[in-house]
Every structure is written in structure tokens, then in C-alpha cells.
Specification:
139 residues; alpha+beta; 8 strands; 32% strand
Amino acid sequence: MTTWHSDTCGCIIDFDDDQILPNGRFKVRKVIQQCPDHSTPDISGHDDLYDTSLGDNQRKNVLLGKMLEAHPELADINEAGGKVLKKDIDYIHSYTGKGKNRVLEVEFAGPNFVFAKKHKDKIKEISDTEFGAGKVVVK
């Protein structure tokens, strides 16, 4: 059993790492805490809560990874050879809305970094392709 703490909301969920559902997700054993943003009628049951909360989390992470691929000036290479965000650039993210209608708001900022139109356009392109129109807003 694993306890998962979302970093995009206050949900805390225990899941069974030995039971994988047909959708590829782990079977939820227990919801320890359901945050107010996910306490909505459009979320039905523990597995739906986990899928929705995990989807929010993955949207934030996938977008960052694709931005690092598309714009090498945002990235450094770590010891393992992977791309990471440069130390002097911040990936600022938050969510608005509730339930399955949460919208990710993002921007990049830093003392020597200009959040240019090319970055904003790429975020929109990636977001619309990966998640559908309206799921990510550029600040």
C-alpha cells in the first residue's frame, strides 16, 4: 500500500500498488482526505477522485516536461542526464475551478528570464494538443 499526497491539491489517498485497474491506475483502498476542490458532484467514488486528482497533477508535470523539450534555454541537464528546469527560473502554477473543471494557470519567471510570446504560444499549443482547449491558461 502507498499513500499519495497530491501536490496540486489537498487530497491524500491510499492505494494498493498490487492491484491495477483496466485504465492502468492503481486500486484505491482509502481516501484519507478529499480536498474542497475535489468535493464536487461530478466526482463519484474513490477511484474517480484519484483519477481526477492525479490527472491534475500529471497535467502540470507533462506540460513542464514538454516545455523543457521545446525550449532548451529553460533546461539544465542533471547528473542522471535528464532535463530539469534551470535553478534561476520558476515554474509558477496554480489551479482555478473545482472538480473535473479545474484549470491549470502557469507562467515561468526569473531574474534573468523573459517569459516571451514564443513560450506562451508553445504552452498553448502543447496544452490544447495534450489536454484539450481551455484546460491550461497562461498568466
